[in-house]
Design goal:
Length: 114
């Protein structure tokens, strides 16, 4: 069974950092784009970041550029989202996806509070 499992979401203070992980199983994902999205309550999911194979071409949403960093470890079948200088408006449920396969993880919540 092909699936994605996110982890790393937590309660964090403004200005803090988190690293989200997305482990893929059931398929070697080294040749696929890996993306992160987030969803605010009552809103549609919005794009956060993308990393493409094979050399890791990267794109970020304007709201996170310069603060978030996406990376991948193909040997571990894992994508990461390093979140730095977290703001209150970053609080959301974060999802990873392999868009060409139309599969999503279950999401990991990030809560921001002082």
């Amino acid at each position: 069974q092909v699936q994605l499992v996110e982890s790393g979401g937590a309660l964090v203070q403004p200005g803090g950092s988190l690293r989200l992980s997305c482990v893929a199983s059931g398929l070697r994902f080294g040749t696929y784009n890996r993306e992160w999205y987030r969803q605010f309550p009552g809103k549609e999911r919005e794009f956060v970041a993308r990393i493409a194979p094979p050399y890791g071409t990267i794109r970020y949403a304007d709201a996170v550029a310069g603060r978030f960093w996406i990376s991948r470890d193909n040997d571990k079948n894992t994508a990461y989202l390093q979140m730095n200088k977290i703001k209150s408006e970053d609080a959301a449920v974060y999802y990873c996806t392999v868009p060409s396969l139309e599969i999503w993880g279950q999401g990991t919540p990030v809560t921001v509070s002082a």
